[in-house]
Predict the 3D structure of the following.
Amino acid sequence: MLFKLNINGQTRSVDVEPGTPLLWVIRDELQLIGTKFGCGVAACGACTVHFNGLPIRSCSFPVDSAADNDITTIEGLQGQVAETVQQAWREKDVVQCGYCQSGQIMSAVNLLTRNPSPTDSDIDSAMSGNACRCATYVRIRDAIKLASQKLEA
């Protein structure tokens, strides 16, 4: 079945079966491989993308529900908040294996877009659906705090 998706500001048509997880459409059909497969049950956050500005787990989100909506992947993430978060990630040396980082960054950008001055509790809540198998949680929180400070300056 043909679906029209607005991915990273571009309308793309894909011919896939209804119910196909958005993750597989993004990776296999559109060749945007920054969004990762982690668990397949929306528990780890590696597959996080923005859907109409809000983070979703694309591994369990059917393409049928995505048609005619705005979807942003890590490749399409842009703007001051996104750039500041990515810079803070580098400055705080967050990445270890890197596998979860696109999902972590997508969630962090959403948090700081909605709440530019988050508390530790706000950060923990917003990032709770994102697992990091290397356990860089302290560095992730520090990078979010750094990005918040830079955005406020």
User: Anything to note?
Assistant: The mean pLDDT is 96. The first strand starts at residue 2 and ends at 7.
